[in-house]
Amino acid sequence: MYILTDGLNYGAARLIGEAVAQEKMRHGMGSQDEAGLGSSKLGHITAIGVMASDQLSYGQLIEETSSTKDENVVLVLENVGDEKHELNPHHSHSIILSCAEPADKEAVQNTVFSMDTRLPELLYSQLRERKTVKRESSQIHDALGLQLREKSSIPVVGLMLHGGPAEIDRVLWLLKKQVPVVVIIRQATASGLLAYAFKEYLRGDGSRVDQILKPQLMSRVQETFPEYCGDSELLRQQVRDRILDCVKVASQSDRQILFLLDPNNPAEDLKDLNKFILAAILTVRRGTEGLTKESINWTLRLALRWNRVDFVAKNILNPNFISRFRVRDDIFVEALLLRDREPFVELFLSMGFLLQRLMTYEQVLKLFEASLNEEFFVTICLKNILRKKEVDLGTRFMHEKNCELNRLLCMLSGLTGLVEPSHLLLPQTSKTNKHILERRALLTILYWAVLTNRKNLVKVLWERSADPIAVGLVISNMYYRMSKYYIQDIDLRSEIKQNAIEFGALAIKIMDLTFNDSPLLAFHSLTNPIPEFNNLNVVDLALIGNNIFFIAHPCCQRSMRERWFGNIKIKSYGSTLFNKFPTMDMMWPLLEFLAEVSTAAVLLLHLLGEYLSFMTYKFLMALSLLVVYFSAMRGMLTASPDLGPMLVNVTELIRKDMINWLQLWLMWVISGGLAIQSVIYPAQPFSLDILGRALLRAILGIWLTEIDDLDGRAEDSLRSNIFYLSC
């Protein structure tokens, strides 16, 4: 990091120098603790001060020493307490300008301004010449280079903190150069006077300025700078006139170049300082070349690092100004990698950013390589789940379909092949539908967000998924298995388990909304196979994750009941006998007709005086009772939405199983009956009568045994048919 100030031990430069010293001390104390934990390396802070020699109390001494030809001269400077004209000791570098005309303040300011704008480009050119640069630092330098290689120059913004008469001159010079200035208002300082004058100037006309503003400003200048002005009326008028010149230049510009920040205003805060600086930078970009793609991307990167999505949504990517804008890929990747930048990701996606542009093997691998600096991914995913000893992805992490990434996702979700490395190699030449590619890209980034414990980012991506119910169940299952099997820390386990509960509840909520709006659509959404999840449907995913709350949903219960009942469809729940189920209307009317005919025949014979035996009456009554009983079951059970389909289902199962059983049974009946017949009556010749008796014996042998077979007849025995021959 490079910081440019005026280098004096006074005002903002002094505050910045003290902050740099504290930051270096904090980094020095924490470097040993942070080593080896996978954290990112701390960047070196370089504070450079640029000032004129006549601004220093020992400026003349420095010029005299520098005029000598001896390059090894060491000059020891000691601050004596005159802070306003001394170097700040916490700056690492100081650039002292020697001016030919020290009284010419504008020339000094022009030189300092030129240094401020050209020094960053010089620093980057030196960094680019270094050949031995590590990968991590090269990424930082490349990011810096993307900013410095824009078509426009580096924007400069003035920041006024408190201040005195000299700072008023500086602000006036910047405003004349059309450089935006951010003024932090504080009463009894130059910033307070400038803010008061600017507000009053915008309220009235020329007469109000002459009659009211000038006299009041004159008295305020005397109250604010009593030591500087003293009793001199001329000094007070000079300060007042310079303030009015600042106001006139700012008001006459075709764009806003003066921004006021009042910390005492409840609607504003010093935390919003970066927002005002962004507004000033946007003014510079818009004024020099308009809102081009390069200027927008440059401002987006700065706003992204300062996490000012509210400013971007209002002033840059506002639908009223820009309907569609293509954000650069590197900016979107940076939004993914930085923490708490989910609003930026959501905003970029709403502007039409296509995730499939990131679906290359190098881009996806770069996301996971960047996660090696995060303790959660290294400890939980690599060490606890994959059992890796070294903190390195290796060549097999995304090498093939059965790679370590898919194995990691399978252990958490129960699904195989969620990421296809072959689809990442040649995405541009693929003939797959763009919508399918976008769905795959979203799911791939979503898996990465789950593995790095970025719940808010997961939620943003889940809201844009094509199958929110299925994706929510998969995410819930991944979080649940992660918390149950692979996390030992109690607090972290509770957090991850709560994430699983939250996404499971979101899936149920979407199911409720869909079911209330269209039950038929909700039912079909549960049964349609999803190609991205091994062609399983939503019910299968809920069963894999053992999500009992989702399974208990009425629509899910209906789907499971339909699966159990097969293709049985209920036509009506009426009370008539023939308006039930088509599979039962073919059998029961015939049986009812036979029972009624047999009952009528018995009654007719009884009237004609033909009496039957008691056992015959009993048999006929039992048979009629069974027919009536089963007929009543048909009329009652089939009217129930639960028992009716179950009865039909059991009937269909019995009918199919009975046919299969009869086919097998007949084979044993024929062969077994003939074998038993030949064993019992071996002497009988084969005839149709014998065949019929054999089959009848085998069929009825399940329930009874023929008595004649037990008695045995001599004429049928083998001994009685043996003839003895003698010679």
UniProtKB/TrEMBL annotation:
Keywords, sorted A to Z: Ion channel, Ion transport, Membrane, Receptor, Transmembrane, Transmembrane helix, Transport
Pfam families referenced in this protein's UniProt entry, alphabetically: LSDAT_euk, TRPM2
InterPro entries from the UniProt entry: TRPM, TRPM-like, TRPM_SLOG
Boundaries of every TRPM-like domain copy: 432-553
Sections of the chain in a coiled coil: none
Membrane spanning stretches: 586-607, 619-637, 665-683
One Gene Ontology cellular component annotation held by this UniProt entry: plasma membrane
Domain of life: Eukaryota
Ranges of residues in domain TRPM SLOG: 2-233
Subcellular location: Membrane
Molecular function, one GO term: monoatomic cation channel activity
Gene Ontology biological process terms, A to Z: metal ion transport
Topology in membrane: Multi-pass membrane protein
Protein's name according to its UniProt entry: Transient receptor potential cation channel subfamily M member 2
Species in which this protein is naturally found: Elysia marginata
